[in-house]
Design brief:
The complex is a heterodimer of chains A (about 290) and B (about 280).
Chain A: H1 5-9, H2 23-51, H3 53-61, H4 64-97, H5 103-109, H6 112-115, H7 118-129, H8 136-139, H9 150-175, H10 179-186, H11 191-220, H12 223-229, H13 239-248, H14 252-290
Chain B: H1 12-42, H2 45-54, H3 56-89, H4 95-102, H5 104-107, H6 110-121, H7 128-133, H8 142-153, H9 155-168, H10 171-178, H11 183-212, H12 215-221, H13 231-240, H14 244-271, H15 278-281
Chain lengths: ~290, ~280
């Protein structure tokens, strides 16, 4: 559907009759599906959270166990998303720019954490990094405990976040021509300067999107974390786990409050993910006009 | 790329160092867990593996997982297709908002999704009285597991179809209609053949996520052995009972399904890269 100049110039929006049918059917059934499966359940949580009132919220937020779990979840998700982003640049760069035997296999393996059920990843990572596991056996005598510590939580979240980090940067690198790098090099920029000043700014939107996706996934992640975390209250207990614990104790308000905070953070991530391309498009237009 | 001028690539030693680092990262992070599953599953021999899977609870868990996937996939495929049709072929107010909302389940914690269902269908939930009066059981029963999985896997098909159908445009469909084809003829003769590989791709991703879903299902299932235990929940129970071999045997089954998904995805990208959304096609 290409817009002609006349369409763009027309000041008044004139709806042309669309000869295709099925708009009402598609949108109606689609919205019903969205409403019933996703929006109604989320509405239930939002309404119940609003009904908690100031006292209810204060009771939950004064609970040190809740605060510690939120701190751990946000902190671990942030660190893990950062690590995953760095690893994501490395893997995407190597996959796009270099040719080596096994490149296709490496590329296919990137999606494995996405396809592997989280519980499977959880028990496998725990077995590898616990005291008598393949890696735990080596690093634990050196004083580095991974399983049942926050390090293990971060590790599981890096595993979960890696595909998002790679797959958001990779298409940008693929689409990016070498012209600007050539120009930078011919103007005398060193390779490092060219990468820093020319390539990196192009990657930034994808990098931020990947970071946000990995962060959002990491914040809510449950299956891969609970096995390796150890789940000690105040120490290695993540917020999603505390939601299930409160639920099992029939402390509905406690569960609702924590879940509502996690949901709010998910909304924020989603807004960020949607705003990033717009922000950068705007910035680019501004630069083009200004310079 | 060996022929690049040296100013446009990194020195040879650095290239190989970066490749080695990437392989190391992927090896430790991704390949090692997969190897661990296989070694632990078959560590006690093939017979122990088989008897762990042949056990009635494990078979019931596998059946429930497949049952859930069999319900969730067609629902998400049909409604995803309808939504993608409306979004890509028509202009309407609030389209951007709708697109953003479609992504919600990607960002919401599975546990939060499970809790939401408890607030609707649980004993203190919004529909508790109606459910009790009509003797309908949703929570701690199959419908709850299906609903939780539907929530989590909601975006996969529609999110795959929207960019693809946007990219393909409506010209062929418009041509079919102007040549006198009815709406359904147009759909089955023009639209569906154009998007079938993309649809399959989305269904594949949806299936992988559906059979592995853990957090949301864990909240609503009630963990009743042989009745409401899916395969991932079965793994958790075995693992917590220190029956490691059986846990990894069940895990190997799910890993196998994940690998088949990846292989099929890989094949789709190779063989039909031009018929799935561009973001995946050009690897």
């Amino acid at each position: 559907m290409t817009e002609t100049a006349a369409d763009l110039a027309a000041p008044v929006h004139r709806p042309t009759p669309n000869p295709l049918s099925g708009f009402g059917l598609g949108l109606g059934l689609g919205m019903a599906w969205l409403g019933a499966v996703v929006l109604l359940p989320l509405l239930a949580l939002s309404v119940r959270a609003a009904q908690l009132g100031g006292d209810g919220w204060l009771r939950v937020l004064r609970d040190d166990r809740v605060l510690q779990s939120l701190k751990l979840s946000f902190g671990a998700a942030f660190v893990a998303a950062s690590v995953a982003s760095l690893a994501g640049i490395l893997v995407a760069w190597v996959l796009v720019r270099y040719r080596f035997p096994g490149r296709r296999l490496l590329d296919a393996l990137v999606d494995l954490p996405f396809a592997l059920p989280t519980a499977v990843a959880g028990i496998a990572l725990t077995a590898i990094y616990s005291a008598n596991g393949w890696i735990g056996r080596i690093v634990e005598p050196m004083g580095l405990k991974i399983a049942y510590t926050p390090v293990g939580i971060v590790l599981a979240l890096v595993f979960i976040g890696l595909p998002f980090a790679v797959r958001t940067v990779q298409p940008i690198l693929e689409a990016m021509g070498r012209e600007s790098e050539e120009a930078a090099a011919s103007l005398g920029a060193s390779r490092f300067t060219a990468l820093r000043r020319v390539v990196f700014p192009e990657l930034l939107p994808g990098l931020l999107t990947g970071f946000s996706l990995a962060f959002a996934r990491g914040l809510g992640e449950y299956g891969s974390v609970i096995f390796i975390a150890g789940n000690l209250p105040y120490k290695t207990e993540i917020a999603p786990l505390l939601v299930t614990i409160r639920l099992e104790e029939y402390d509905y308000n406690g569960a609702i409050a924590i879940a509502a905070l996690l949901l709010a953070a998910s909304f924020a991530c989603l807004v960020a993910i949607n705003a990033i391309p717009l922000l950068f498009a705007h910035e680019r237009r501004r630069r083009h006009r200004g310079e | 790329m060996a022929n690049d001028p040296s100013s446009l690539t990194e020195p040879r030693w650095l290239r190989w160092l970066l490749i080695a680092l990437a392989v190391l990262v992927m090896g430790v992070l991704v390949v090692l867990p997969l190897g661990m599953v296989l070694v632990a599953a078959f560590g006690d021999g093939f017979r122990a593996w088989w008897s762990a899977l042949a056990e009635p609870d494990a078979r019931a868990a596998l059946r429930l997982t497949l049952f859930t996937v069999a319900i969730v996939l067609p629902i998400n495929a049909v409604f995803g297709l309808l939504t993608a049709w409306a979004v890509t072929r028509f202009e309407f107010r609030g389209k951007r908002l709708l697109l953003a909302v479609l992504d919600l389940p990607f960002a919401v914690s599975p546990v939060v999704a499970g809790l939401c269902l408890v607030l609707l269908f649980g004993s203190h939930g919004w529909f508790a009285q109606w459910l009790a009066a009509h003797e309908v059981k949703i929570l701690f029963a199959r419908p709850g597991i299906v609903l939780a999985t539907l929530f989590i896997t909601f975006p996969f098909v529609v999110r795959e179809l929207i960019p693809l159908m946007q990219q393909q445009g409506a010209e062929e469909e418009l041509a079919a209609r102007s040549l006198g084809a009815g709406a359904w003829t147009m759909f089955f003769r023009v639209t569906l053949p154009k998007i079938r590989w993309g649809l399959l791709y989305g269904v594949l991703l949806c299936g992988a996520r559906a059979m592995g879903e853990f957090g949301a299902v864990s909240v609503v299932s009630g963990h009743i052995r042989g009745l409401t235990n899916t395969l991932p929940l079965h793994i958790e129970i075995l693992y917590n009972e220190f029956d490691t071999t059986a846990a990894f045997a069940a895990a190997s089954l799910l890993s196998g399904m994940a690998l088949v998904t990846l292989l099929a995805k890989f094949w789709l990208e190779r063989a039909h890269g031009d018929a799935i959304a561009a973001s995946h096609g050009k690897h």
